[in-house]
Amino acid sequence: LAEVTSSSVPVAIRVDPVGCERVPGTCNMYNEFWDSVASVFPKRVFRLSCAQQKDMCLKGDLIPVEISEPREPIFAFWVDGEFVHYDETRNPDDILEYIVEEVFPRSARKGGKDIIVAFEAAEKYNANIATHSKAEMFFQGQQFEKAMPILIEHIDKFPDNLNSVVLTANLAGAVKKSDYALELMKRVEEKEPNNAFILGRTAQILHSMKNWDMAMEYISRALSVEPDSEDADEMNRKNLED
To answer: Quick one: which H or E segment has residue 165?
Structure first.
């Protein structure tokens, strides 16, 4: 950070708050897009994980205000000797447009890939999110028969979108397909074995299956996660304790 702030060269930083890199956080969804931006602007684009470098996130330079959405990334740009925080939208198209027009001169692309790779990654992200949002709308409207085929195809196409896998599990539970719901949650647990949110959701499914002993085991594991850990789920902790 000191190297960045002592430089006159513009820099883009994606800050991932603690918990944002875990379901139901959205930060990992931006990885492919942000990596593509970094490939277009060599040595100008970085990512800061607050879970791994908490001391840097506590200094107040990159995160000057209280984080209202800890499950969302923050985009900060070092321009003309100060940090500028972009909070208009988290749509990659808009973020990329801002970077091109307001942050980096064209010369910053020297040695990098063609900018089309960043636009293609943004388009892929938007397609991913749009499908998830459509299925979520049907789910919330209890139109389960419309949501299920969309989600099954979606998680096959985007297996790393763990939030969609969890949504599919929730839907499977709602239509009494508990075995399939549990199978999906196990898939997410393999990726994030200590995530209290996932452990709690799995406990709910096991409870619905009347597998009391296994449900209690998952609840105990969820409650054992340290409150300040990136795997914590303090929002739902009280429900698990009850």
So the answer is: helix 162-174
pTM of the model: 0.92
Query: Is-contact 39 108, C-beta < 8 A?
Result: no
Within a 10 A sphere around the Cβ of 159, how many other Cβ atoms?
12
Phi, psi of 128 (to 5 degrees): -60, -50
How does DSSP assign 178-234, residue by residue? Answer: HHHHHHHHHHHHHH-TT-HHHHHHHHHHHHHTT-HHHHHHHHHHHHTS-TTSTT--G
The conformation of residue 61, written as its DSSP 8-state character, comes to: S
**N-to-C CA span, the chain:** 43
CB 90 within 8 A of CB 72: yes
Average pLDDT, 10 consecutive residues per value, the chain (242 residues):
79 92 96 98 93 77 58 90 87 97 94 96 97 98 98 97 98 97 98 97 96 96 93 87 81
